[in-house]
Write a structure and sequence with these properties.
The protein has 146 residues and is mainly α. Helices cover 60% and strands 0% of the residues. The chain contains 8 helices and no strands. It has helices at residues 17-30, 35-38, 48-63, 68-74, 80-91, 96-107, 117-133, 140-145. Helix 6 (96-107) runs antiparallel to helix 7 (117-133). The longest helix has 17 residues, at 117-133. It is elongated and about 55 Å long.
């Protein structure tokens, strides 16, 4: 089995939530730590004690990938689903500030000399995927010009 590459995992700093969320979800799935985050019921084959321990273990794992300014908001959480939902509440806001941040990120995206064009296009698509995910819509003409 191929060993996953965690070298490109980023730390959540409060401004990169959408990118961090996707990467963290992938890691949780690969490491088979996803159940406490993405299920609402305890599996029948787990005791209450084991299920509670699994939640704490996942919370501890996730906390390794957040900056100190984020850690202050989640340091005492021991329920993985509650923790994940708290991130959504804190950072996935469809507020004007979040939209503005993502729009600026897209507008400031420039090709970096020496990188592959496919990496650049992937980053470009990622910016727009994030904008679309929070409800920002563009007319086809604008997207074509961009």
């Amino acid at each position: 089995m191929m060993e996953p590459n965690y070298g490109k995992m980023i730390s959540l700093n409060g401004t990169n939530y959408h990118k961090w969320r996707g990467k963290m979800k992938d890691i949780l799935l690969v490491k088979r730590l996803h159940l406490p985050v993405f299920t609402t019921q305890k599996p029948e084959n787990k005791s209450d004690e084991n299920w509670a321990f699994e939640h704490e273990m996942v919370c501890g794992y996730i906390r390794q990938w957040v900056d100190d300014n984020v850690l202050n908001h989640i340091a005492n959480d021991t329920h993985a689903k509650t923790l994940w939902d708290k991130f959504e509440t804190l950072y996935a806001s469809k507020s004007g500030n979040n939209k503005l941040f993502l729009l600026k990120q897209a507008m400031n995206l420039r090709y970096k000399e020496g990188t592959s064009i496919s990496d650049h296009l992937s980053e470009f698509q990622g910016c727009f995927d994030l904008l679309f995910s929070i409800g920002v819509k563009f007319e086809d003409e604008i997207l074509g010009l961009w």
